[in-house]
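$ ./design --mode recover --in tokens.txt
reading tokens...
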């Protein structure tokens, strides 16, 4: 492919790369690489191989556990497996930062610049359903895609915010085990992937991006607990946004040090020699030399685009306690009872139960039930759950019902897109389950299940288009009990949920949300 690169960019890269410049430029004539990353919440590598979807399932992306290359003509975004949340389509190099963050089950993790959600879904897979993920983006229009991708992946333990880092820092001081800052940048590493990035580079100066990155990092530092890890990444080659940015940060934050990254699988060392003279003189030789422990991905070295990553550890200072990284954080009822975020919600619920809240009516009709009570009734009828299965607490924002991980600080004053796992809402005095609930369930957690025919079947295509299906009653799989085959049915493909249907007398009314339908 041919990419028209700005002359100023070419001159700069020639100066930086020297003998490697011609090889670097030749990469822009080569076709770009395409990647998808399996969602371990939905499918294992062994199960994926058995599904036999990719033409070459052995083409692994070497720096990530669940990444695979695919051919452009395979178009996995159009396949029903995508609608089942089995994988996320992601540029191969973009899979590196979350992989380096060393997330463990039980950790509290912040993805500070998260949209459209690729790295958040990768982190959630590492959490394996425990701990807490807070995914934030300050651009409101981008949080729609962020929330949808988190829901598509079936993530139960995430909160989605639309805030500036400064606002979040006030609510979460030294609270997170891990923080990812995939910083907004000049995007030089993505020129081959998208021609539009060249135009954006002309408009967004390196200096403007550097100032924005510094502000984000300063607030991120306040939210990381002692002993925790902060991963800074960009998709640009600019030293001002990479090595020089980290040198300045380390100078201003002496409680942070570089955690060296292994330079394997095509990763190259960071370039301390590219730090500008003024920054190098101010930061000092010790800080500058440590930058060789950061990492770069180059398009002429690996199958992927350009990326930079720096892994930083917050030291345990005098008088502070290092975070307990070896023992996963486990929510408890005691924590939930004392959590400010839930206290206000429960007060609201009590007011509504007492008939004093918004929309309260006199009498004892079903319309007096709160969203939480209606959810509990729905759960008993439609779901098969054990006590403590979810490690979260139900509460409502208006008529919407969420399951929020216990132990979350107060979200008061923050712009909240998803206060937890969005499980449904109250309509016409009835609880209506959400698409997010369907995607987050396992097949064995629903009382009624319909397993659709294979991924290439007409039945699957019709369901994904939002059409009504005619289904024999003996195809509906019943869970425990003698529940009548009527009502909400969890619709599955190869054992993974793809949405809801409402069944009665051989007819399955399609409940797939319009925004989730295949067009």
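writing sequence...
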């Amino acid at each position: 492919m041919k990419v028209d690169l700005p002359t100023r960019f070419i001159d700069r890269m020639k100066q930086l790369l020297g003998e490697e410049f011609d090889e670097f430029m030749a990469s822009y004539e080569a076709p770009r690489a395409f990647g998808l990353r399996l969602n371990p919440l939905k499918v294992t590598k062994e199960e994926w191989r058995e599904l036999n979807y990719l033409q070459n399932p052995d083409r692994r992306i070497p720096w990530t556990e669940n990444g695979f290359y695919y051919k452009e003509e395979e178009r996995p975004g159009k396949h029903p497996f995508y609608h089942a949340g089995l994988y996320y389509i992601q540029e191969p190099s973009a899979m590196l930062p979350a992989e380096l963050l060393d997330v463990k089950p039980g950790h509290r993790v912040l993805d500070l610049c998260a949209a459209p959600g690729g790295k958040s879904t990768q982190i959630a897979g590492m959490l394996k359903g425990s701990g807490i993920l807070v995914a934030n983006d300050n651009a409101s229009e981008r949080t729609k895609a962020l929330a949808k991708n988190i829901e598509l992946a079936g993530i139960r333990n995430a909160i989605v915010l639309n805030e500036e880092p400064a606002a979040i820092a006030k609510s979460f001081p030294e609270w997170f085990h891990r923080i990812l800052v995939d910083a907004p940048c000049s995007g030089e590493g993505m020129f081959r992937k998208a021609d539009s990035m060249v135009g954006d580079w002309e408009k967004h100066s390196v200096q403007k991006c550097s100032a924005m990155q510094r502000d984000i990092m300063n607030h991120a530092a306040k939210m990381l607990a002692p002993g925790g890890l902060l991963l800074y990444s960009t998709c640009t080659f600019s030293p001002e946004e990479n090595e020089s940015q980290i040198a300045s940060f380390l100078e201003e934050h002496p409680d942070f040090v570089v955690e060296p990254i292994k330079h394997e699988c095509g990763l190259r060392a960071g370039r301390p020699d590219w730090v500008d003279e003024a920054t190098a003189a101010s930061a000092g030789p010790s800080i500058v030399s440590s930058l060789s422990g950061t990492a770069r991905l180059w398009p002429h070295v690996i199958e992927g685009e350009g990326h930079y990553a720096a892994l930083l550890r917050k030291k345990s200072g005098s008088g502070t306690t290092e975070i307990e990284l070896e023992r996963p954080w486990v929510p408890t009822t005691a924590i939930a009872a004392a959590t400010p975020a839930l206290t206000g919600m429960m007060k609201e619920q009590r007011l509504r139960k007492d008939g004093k809240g918004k929309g309260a009516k006199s009498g004892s009709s079903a319309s007096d039930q709160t969203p939480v009570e209606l959810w509990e009734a729905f759960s008993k009828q439609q779901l098969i759950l054990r006590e403590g299965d979810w490690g979260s607490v139900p509460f409502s924002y208006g008529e919407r019902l969420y399951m929020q991980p216990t132990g979350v600080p107060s979200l008061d004053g923050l712009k909240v897109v998803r206060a937890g796992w969005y499980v449904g809402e109250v309509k016409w005095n009835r609880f209506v389950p959400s698409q997010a609930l369907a995607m987050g369930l396992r097949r064995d957690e629903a009382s009624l299940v319909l397993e659709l025919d294979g991924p290439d079947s007409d039945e699957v295509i019709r369901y994904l288009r939002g059409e009504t299906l005619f289904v024999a009653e003996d195809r509906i799989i019943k869970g425990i009990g003698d529940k009548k085959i009527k009502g909400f049915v969890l619709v599955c493909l190869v054992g993974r949920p793809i949405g809801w249907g409402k069944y009665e007398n051989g007819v399955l009314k399609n409940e797939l949300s319009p925004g989730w339908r295949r067009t």
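exit 0
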